[in-house]
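Tip: read the tokens left to right.
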């Protein structure tokens, strides 16, 4: 039997047919780095532009920095848009603001089950070769003895068909963990969440990805945003980025699962990047030149585009801190030290 095998970028930016129900969202994502002492250069990569593909179109996007920098972009091998920039010169704060308007078509409901014979698709050499990146262990999605025990305790093995297996796994992970913001770090191994039975969306996505891959199902990490409505009772944070996973299913293609909220992905999830795990697609990754400690603040707002976010709205917490005054004080101290040395 032959199966339709899609490129793993899954990017087909055709126009969504008029007859398909759709939603529009405005997004503002603000990131601020503060440094304990002035630094002389920042080099940064950013994965923040929503993807263009079958169900989702990014209609508008802008990315600005303060201090101002010239922003460039390229497409990585997963089909994600990566922006990068360099901020030369002395500074003690860097703010990145990404804004977008998104069109999303509603996803067709899933069937109740798949035929049990679809398990055979995962033994097809062509399928395995095509999706090998999403079958092998990766930086944060790696098997361990603790995960194997967790898998046995919850009975997370192949069931009647692949879809039933994934839906059951999604629900059991949701029930097994508490969602506790800042209970883990971005670089925490999955054992931290497993041992404490609590974590954040990244942890739950990494755990489920590892389990799904162990069953021979290609699985990938998705970063982006979730539009929250009061009636949905989502437990993930409204003012933060979000993460979930997609598994490849015969006859259905890539299907998204959100174990943080026990959801099958439809029209509220906005995809910015896909990869093997968080390591491939962090919202920001960079280095700076200087000796200083950094502090990070992030603010996210997703709204229906009929009510766009005001351009002047600052989503970051207020601080009694003047970067210009800090720089002036440091320069004055340097001048005094130089005079004393002379």
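Filled-in amino acids:
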């Amino acid at each position: 039997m032959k199966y339709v095998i899609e490129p793993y970028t899954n990017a087909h930016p055709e126009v969504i047919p008029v007859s398909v129900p759709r939603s529009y969202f405005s997004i503002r994502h603000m990131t601020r780095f503060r440094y304990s002492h002035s630094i002389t250069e920042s080099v940064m990569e950013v994965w923040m532009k929503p993807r263009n593909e079958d169900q989702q179109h990014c209609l508008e996007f802008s990315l600005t920095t303060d201090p101002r920098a010239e922003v460039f972009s390229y497409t990585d091998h997963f089909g994600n848009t990566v922006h990068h920039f360099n901020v030369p010169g002395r500074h003690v704060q860097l703010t990145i603001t990404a804004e977008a308007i998104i069109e999303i078509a509603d996803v067709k409901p899933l069937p109740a089950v798949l035929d049990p014979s679809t398990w055979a698709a995962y033994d097809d050499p062509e399928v395995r070769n095509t999706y090998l990146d999403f079958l092998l262990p990766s930086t944060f999605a790696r098997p361990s003895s603790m995960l194997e025990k967790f898998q046995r305790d919850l009975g997370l093995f192949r069931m009647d068909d692949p879809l039933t297996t994934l839906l059951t796994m999604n629900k059991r992970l949701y029930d097994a963990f508490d969602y506790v913001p800042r209970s883990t770090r971005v670089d925490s191994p999955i054992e931290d969440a497993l041992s404490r039975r609590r974590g954040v969306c990244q942890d739950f996505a990494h755990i489920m990805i590892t389990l799904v891959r162990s069953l021979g199902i290609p699985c990938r990490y998705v970063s982006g945003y979730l539009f929250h409505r009061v009636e949905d009772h989502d437990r993930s944070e409204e003012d933060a980025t979000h993460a979930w996973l997609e598994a490849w299913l015969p006859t259905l293609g890539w299907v998204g699962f959100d174990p943080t909220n026990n959801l099958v992905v439809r029209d509220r999830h906005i995809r910015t990047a896909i990869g093997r795990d968080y390591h491939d697609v962090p919202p920001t990754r960079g280095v700076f030149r200087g000796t200083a400690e950094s502090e990070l603040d992030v603010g996210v707002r997703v709204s229906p585009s009929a009510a766009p976010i005001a351009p002047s709205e600052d989503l970051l917490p207020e601080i009694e801190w003047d970067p210009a005054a800090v720089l002036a004080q440091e320069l004055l101290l340097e001048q005094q030290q130089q005079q004393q040395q002379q």
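The chain has two domains: 22-104+283-341, 111-265. The chain has a mean pLDDT of 90.
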